[in-house]
Amino acid sequence: MGWDVNMVNHDTVIPVAKISFRARHSFLLFIVVSILIASVVIVISMIMYNGSGAAQLDLSRPGYVNVRSQATTNGDDFQMYSSTGVISKDVIVEFKALYDSQAQKIKVVDAFGGDPLSPDALYPPATQKPAF
Measured in whole angstroms, how far is the alpha carbon of residue 33 from the centre of its chain? Predict the structure, then answer.
């Protein structure tokens, strides 16, 4: 085509690189991948929390308002176990005995009964029950 009246050359072609999908949407992909990773980590941690039995020990849950008063904090019957020292067969037997005695006390509470989900347990006396 050549030069026009205004002295502009129309023969010059400036190559434009094609931008990939990943480059155009990198921030959006970053956000989506971050949310997916966070969700996977949360699911794994909740599975571990419920599977390990820690959920049954968590007295801060609303379902255990009635049981909190039964929790003892003085530790008269709880013997602390040393976290350092030599590991021998006698030490393992002693630890298992202490662990089993504490585990039996935990198993007495019925964590899967209906009481933790009752309206009285879910709504403390200081709050009003919602009108459904």
Answer: 18
User: What letter represents residue 80's amino acid?
Assistant: M
Instruction: Locate 89 and state its tokens.
Output: 């067969």
Residue 85 banded pLDDT, cuts 50, 70, 90: confident
User: Region 97-122: what's the mean pLDDT?
Assistant: 71
In which band, very low, low, confident or very high, does the pLDDT at 95 lie, cut at 50, 70 and 90? confident
Give the ranges where the chain is alpha helix by DSSP (H): 21-24, 26-51, 54-57, 65-68, 89-107, 119-122
Spatial separation of the C-alpha atoms in residues 7 and 3, rounded to whole Å: 6
How far is it, in rounded angstroms, from Cα 54 to Cα 114? 19
What number of other Cβ atoms are within 10 A of residue 64's Cβ?
19
Is residue 100 a part of any domain in this protein? yes
Assess if residue 115 is contained within a domain: yes
Question: 45: exposed, middle or buried (C-beta count within 10 Å: 0-12, 13-18, 19+)?
Answer: exposed
> Count of domains in the chain?
1
Element containing residue 84 per DSSP (H, E) = none
- Residue pair 3/9 in contact (Cβ under 8 Å)? The answer is yes
15 in a structural domain = no
